[in-house]
Amino acid sequence: MRIKSYFVKSTGEALAQARAELGEDVLLLSTRKVDSPLGSTANYEVVFGCPDADTPEASANAAATGPEPVAAEAAAVAPVAFKTASSRPRMNRKAPAADLEQLRSQMDEIHGLLLSSGRPRVTARGLPLLDAAFARLTKAGLSVSLAGSIVDGVAAALSSDEPEPNGDTGQSLRWYEEDRLTELLRAEMNKRIKVDSQLGVKGSGSAVAAMVGPTGAGKTSTLMKIAAFQAARNRPVRLLTLDHSGLGSRMQLQFFARKTGIAFTAVETPEVLPQLIEEERLKSIVLIDTPGHQPDAEREKLGAILARCAGVDVHLVLPGYMSSGACREAIRKYGIFWPVKLAVTKLDETTTFGTLASEAARAGLSLSLVADGVSIPDSLHSASIEDLMAIAVPEQAQQACA
């Protein structure tokens, strides 16, 4: 690891310098206030670190020798919004992405140990709420690097604020700070965690959505909840299923469609999917269920066919209790379908979806829907930054700022 200290007027200035010199993935190791030497305006010593491979020098060496296999894998799984099949890069599943993920996990662990064993991050400024937010976010599953960047962004914004007078009591200043911190935390989360609950691709003039993901993640139940909610409107709904791996989900959809009067079609061969979508998209909301487990060849075939269908809103569906490593593997595996959103299910079986929110941010996916029970459609709601704010900010602070 490469480590460098910066003597600066504010943490925001240090962060900008570190990213310029060490790269975007820098880790904040420590911050301390220092007495400015004669002729200097520095108020803080801020220490950053980064893996040697992330330095500009290493990047230049890598450019000279050619891309590493893991770089090809990272480029392959990065979601791209609805390009044509011919313009999409080929996926390289043989690249050793596990090595890169192991390195990232180790860096997160080292960063967490350094932060937990060192000086408090910001209590010297009299703002323990930020320390509490950082601790709550990491406990809820956000990666140390993401939680740290959120809190660092807040600290940087605060450093540029004009100092407020204390007034008659310290209490008024404390509540002012909590109000300001809550506002800044929400803004920093919005910068780093994307949320998009719109059904369908913006500008496509229709609502066509497909759910992809592992068996048991909740794709079929999520589709039924969406269908039940949309069926209350004037526009009809058409359910399509491509899942022939077992009769369970197919029969479940058939029974649901018969009971609700929603149109249902079992698609026997994926080759007819583009035509079915084109026939239905202008007169119905089209919801597509896909198999969870498939051989690689069949999954690639279905992914290529779905890619030819313009304007399909692809959601990766994962349970809220999924571990970070399993989530990354699912994002890699189902990247063949080019999902742009992540729907979180089974939140009633866990306490938070911080891990999935963190992995969605890492992969560039937008959080879309959250399901927290079996009730149709009541246990489904749009994802929101407020779901994460409830984790980051103590309850009394949220009440004070309401």
Salient structural properties:
disordered C terminus; 402 residues; 8-stranded mixed beta sheet; 3 domains; Rossmann fold; 3-stranded antiparallel beta sheet; alpha/beta; elongated; 15 helices
Question: What does it look like?
Answer:
Helices cover 46% and strands 15% of the residues. It is an alpha/beta fold and 402 residues long. Strands 6-5-7-4-8-9-10-11 form an eight-stranded mixed β-sheet, with helices on both faces. The protein has a three-stranded antiparallel β-sheet with strand order 1-3-2. Helix 9 links the parallel strand 5 and strand 6 (263-266). Helix 6 packs across helix 7, helix 7 crosses helix 14 and helix 7 (170-192) packs across helix 15.
Give the strand content. 15-25%
Oligomer: single chain
The CATH level-2 architecture of the largest domain is identified as: 3-Layer(aba) Sandwich
Low-pLDDT stretches are 54-96, 116-125, 167-175, 396-402
Bin the helical content: 40-55%
Structural class: alpha/beta
Specify the biggest β-sheet. 8 strands, mixed
The CATH homologous superfamily of the largest domain = P-loop containing nucleotide triphosphate hydrolases
CATH topology of the largest domain: Rossmann fold
Short description, anyone?
This protein is an alpha/beta fold and 402 residues long. It has helices at residues 11-22, 56-65, 69-77, 97-117, 128-139, 144-159, 170-192, 219-230, 247-260, 273-280, 296-307, 324-333, 354-363, 385-392, 395-401, and strands spanning 2-8, 27-33, 44-50, 208-212, 237-241, 263-266, 285-289, 313-319, 341-345, 366-371, 380-382.
